[in-house]
Amino acid sequence: MLVRPDHRDSFRRSTRVALAAMAVVSLCQCSAATGSDGGDVAPESAPDVATSDVVTMPMDTPTPGDVPTVVDAPSVDVVSDAPRTDVIRADVILPDVITGGPTYTFVASRLTIDATDAPEVAHTGFNVDGLFSGPTDADGCNHEDFFSLFDRDQHSPSGCAMGATPCTGGVDNQLPTVIGALEAVAGSDPRMILAGEVTNNRFAVLVQLSSVDDPVNDSSIGIRVFIGYPTFTTGCTSVAADREYSVSAASLRPGGTGPSDALIAVPGAIVGGRVITTTPVAGGLPFPLPIGAGLTLDVSLHALQVRFDLASTLDRGTNGNLGGWAPGNELVDAIDRIAPGFREAVEAILAGVVDVRLPGMTTCVDRTTPTMPQFGGASMGLGAQLVRARVSTTTPVAARPAVGTCGAM
Prior knowledge:
This protein is α+β, with helices and mostly antiparallel strands. The chain has one domain (5-40, 70-76, 85-408). Helix content is 17%, strand content 26%. It contains five helices and 15 strands. Strand 12 and strand 13 form a beta hairpin. The longest helix has 30 residues, at 5-34. The chain is globular and about 50 Å long. Mean pLDDT is 80; it is low at 1-97.
């Protein structure tokens, strides 16, 4: 992608200056809240936001009857109401056994980040730690979980509605908080940047469904997720249906030669017209999230889940929900690459962001070695809508966008 160096450098300079200021505030807050040991810090309460029980996200208007009704509580047991004893599931390595049959590939035509991190608002994302945490729950890293925008089985009791009694949200999503901090320190709008990168075909997320026998109810399908690169050279300012993409080599297992070698290849189902992943995924998907002019937050998404309403015509998906968690240390490294020289400030800020205690960790932030703190995970959720696409038969895999294609422009 061609980017004016002055724009990229301006973003970096703004981030560095603001991080220096935030370092003083964050370190003082940590010291006051926890003492010299720098333990976990309970986040400040979210600002009051005028909300309603129903939150909408812009979507393309489907033709009436094409998109099945959203099922709030799928019959497939995805998340148990009872908290898991291991706090978070370790990634499970699964063979990609659900193959064959009709296969359909989709590309995200829109990706959105929630506008606020207020707990009064329903959010995208999933219950990635199996908990229903309150603001002082140490297992949940002192972060209050959210209600779901699309999937009520992420609540406890499963299927209950936001505002009902009893009903507790379980969605984990710290991406709005991370993006809000970047927006504040750099003076840019990462949400608008993400929207532009998707619309201009510079950031493409592909979802492939295999063994689809019924677009409304199918108990056994395969789901693969990739980063993709356009192979086309025209129409670069919109995401149109039925165009070809190469799969990023970084989305495949080592030595992989095609989509069947996907890093993220898991069982799924279609329940009432809604596509859902049914099992935690193995490993993490490299996910270079655009946040500034020519800059990406280079992290990997673990425990990745995807859901969307599948049109009966099998040509698009709406009400999409994509989420997982990113290792906190990867986030520190990613921000440090954007604004080097303020790692201590970034670490202090991240200590108040991580919300997933990982296997083997007794706390969400381990400062046993002060100069090398270990962070838990930071949950991430995105809204999505998708249109049909194809994986190129001539160039199914590419290490980077080909010169002259839309993704390289």
